[in-house]
């Protein structure tokens, strides 16, 4: 599987309107079009952080788990690692669903989750799991190193130039011989539907304008090797959207929720009001099934080489 998009044009600046939250987390939250977003100025991340987004991420986790056949890629290699008690970190953990699953399955290992914003569970989580706010673009706030680090779906969070910084910070937080698992996707779906293609083209322009590379997921092995990782495994998966098994149909709904979550940014990009943008999304999403839409994902296992 090659790249997921052809070159996109750079679009003009959208007039997004932000209102500060009055919920007591004003410094970390801004509200736009009735959805809560992070308020980290330097970040290009455009998805919300509210309960509706947490629900979407929980559902997406279980759909991806089914599609990849479990939480660990290359299980014939990785599952064996968990026979020992490990220190495991998930970066950009969101509501922590991957961690909750693993922490329950491996009660003798210790799990840590970090995210740029406090979307993770504050009170109810397994005893061997803890969370804190941290940015992958800064040195990670731990005075020990990890056996296993996990990242999933940061493609619309990092500028193209930021991947090497993120991977350097991850490398420095791994023990020599430690393992890094990353799964990323192209945010742009494959479709022939003319209405969805308009949305896709605008999303491509939006991410390029944010200096993100929508094709990054297919090229991460190059950056990993640049940052001294040894790439042990690369796999590609095409996720059907809205057609196929009940899980594939649900995956279409999850993707529609992504489009709706980006509404303030995408409406500005398309020069339409938010209600009109949502109408366009609902209409185009209804055609994902009949048009056999899909989205490509890539998974990698890499290793920090052992010290000799
Ligand atoms: C698409 S969600 C994926 C969540 C989770 N990894 C999963 O697969 O369910 C991306 C997450 O990355 C977080 N994020 C964005 N930029 C980040 C950064 N620079 N450092 C740490 N987390 C970040 C977001 O707040 C969000 O929770």
UniProtKB/TrEMBL annotation:
Q: Where is the composition biased (Polar residues)?
A: 1-11, 18-28
* Gene3D superfamilies registered for this protein in UniProt: Vaccinia Virus protein VP39
Region annotated Disordered sits at 1-32
Outline the extent of the Methyltransferase domain. Answer: 88-178
The molecular function GO annotations come to: methyltransferase activity
Q: What is this protein called?
A: Methyltransferase domain-containing protein
Q: Which organism is it from?
A: Umbelopsis ramanniana AG
